[in-house]
Design a protein that fits this description.
single chain, alpha/beta, nine-stranded mixed sheet, 12 helices
Length: 469
């Protein structure tokens, strides 16, 4: 008989080791390495000679690249922001993974989506591994979803769940809340470990592909903001969405980071209330609702999230530092990107910030991920240092290079259109984007380098007078 092969897997980070040790060298955790049988299950090597003699492979069909493609059949929920983030709704036979911090509203959003689909005549099964049926019903009462035909179950065993949802009445949507609570009889480790999460996710994905039902898996996140468990789960599913938000703010963002059936980097914006999540059709008005027109250090950035333009206020505070090493604090933007902008202002624009504390904040708790915000950040920094308020009706966008030049960014026309819709009369954009100025009501200023922007804000020629104070 062939000897079974084993491997040692860390139950915290999923790294594989040749032998057992008390501490995982990858994540630094103690007593998390467990021996697993490598001869069966996911990640198993080639089967033994006996196994090869029992089961022979079968030839599969080969297809040409050319041919007619059918659009993926979708189940629209009716929640426009959720449908936008998923690319038009849940795709039949697909598996979708949603992650987010505890208490951010993942279960609330999915309950509202389940109720909306049930009202449209779809069969929806909601399986909770964290709450009892009575607790789920209390949430449904608060959301006004008790009049729908959503079916509930409180179960964590994978085999029991598959036996329940695999009846003759095939469901259109199955929600598993959450994947970290599932456990299978075929795996020995405790629920929530790498092996159990991997086995449970594969079983539910296989069910989705075989039956054509859409499966939504809810995932916990680690302190670093990544979905807990093996990273291979994100590769196995068809779409990965993150539900983001700050407990100190009432809005939530559903961000798409992977989607095999639609665009990535798409977002849906919701507002949390006592009756659940409310869709926000115009996020720009939400992020610009509490602006102070006379305060220095505030610039409005015209950004893009997928196909949606969003205007958000960038706030900067520059103050003399009493410390030997000035502080640099950033909320909602990349810290390394801020260091680069400060270096460019010092080297090419004569703006001395080495003796000043710099605080940067994106209003509303929103997070900016694109480099097009460089120009808005630099303008806010110079405005705060000079004590001069920027025009209240002006937006900024453009990428700043290390040489101080302002580079073009994509979707300039859509950014300007959104700004005009919200009443902004002027814009500062990179040079070379003049093709978008035709027919515009807003006054557009095209700049080639950051020094021109600094000179315009300070109202003087920086080559003659440097901002040294």
């Amino acid at each position: 008989m062939a000897r079974s092969r084993t491997q040692f897997v860390c139950q915290n980070c999923g790294s594989v080791h040749a032998r057992w040790s008390g501490k995982c060298e990858s994540c630094g955790e103690w007593n998390t390495i467990v021996e697993e049988d490598q001869s069966v299950g996911i990640g198993a090597g080639p089967p033994s000679a006996m196994a090869r003699s029992v089961r022979k492979g079968r030839a599969v069909n080969l297809f040409a690249l050319s041919g007619d493609n059918e659009e993926a059949p979708r189940i629209a929920t009716g929640l426009l922001e959720l449908d936008r983030a998923t690319g038009g709704g849940f795709v039949r036979g697909s598996a979708l993974l949603i992650g987010g911090d505890p208490g951010i509203g993942k279960s609330t959003m999915l309950m509202q989506a389940a109720a909306a689909l049930a009202r449209r005549g779809h069969r929806v099964i909601y399986v909770s591994g964290e709450e009892a049926v009575a607790q789920v019903r209390l949430r449904a009462q608060r959301l006004g979803a008790t009049d729908t035909s959503v079916l509930l179950a409180a179960e964590t065993n994978v085999e029991n769940i598959l036996a329940t949802v695999s009846g003759k009445d095939r469901p259109d949507l199955v929600i598993i809340d959450s994947i970290q609570t599932l456990w299978s009889d075929s795996a020995e480790p405790a629920p929530g470990t790498v092996t159990q999460v991997r086995v449970g996710a594969q079983a539910m994905i296989r069910f989705a592909k075989q039956t054509g039902a859409a499966v939504v898996l809810v995932g916990h996140v680690t302190k670093d903001g990544q979905i807990a468990g093996p990273r291979v789960v994100e590769h196995m599913v068809d779409a990965v969405l993150y539900f983001e938000g700050d407990r100190g703010h009432h809005y939530r963002i559903l961000r798409t980071v992977k989607n095999r059936f639609g665009p990535t980097d798409e977002i849906g914006v919701f507002e949390m209330s006592d009756r659940g999540l409310r869709e926000v059709e115009n996020p720009s008005e939400l992020f610009l609702g509490e602006r102070n027109a006379r305060s220095a250090g505030a610039a409005v950035f015209a950004g893009m999230e997928g196909t949606r333009p969003i205007l958000v206020e960038v706030q900067a505070l520059v103050a003399p530092s009493p410390l030997g090493t000035p502080r640099r604090a950033v909320v909602g933007w990349d810290n390394a990107r801020l260091s680069m902008i400060l270096a460019v202002l010092e080297a090419h624009c004569g703006v001395r910030l080495s003796n000043h504390d710099v605080y940067l904040n994106v209003a509303g708790g929103y997070r900016i991920n694109e480099p097009a915000a460089d120009l808005a950040v630099a303008s806010a920094l110079v405005s705060s240092l000079a004590g001069l308020a920027l025009p209240n009706d002006c937006v900024y966008f453009g990428e700043v290079s290390l040489s101080g030049s302002v580079r073009q960014v994509s979707h300039a026309a859509q950014r300007l259109k959104e700004a005009e819709k919200l009443g902004f009369a002027s814009a500062v954009i990179p040079a070379g984007s003049s093709d978008v100025t035709a027919g515009r009501e807003a006054s557009v200023s095209a700049v080639e380098n950051l020094a021109d922007v600094v000179a315009a804000i300070a109202g003087t020629d920086i080559s003659d007078k440097r901002m040294d104070d």
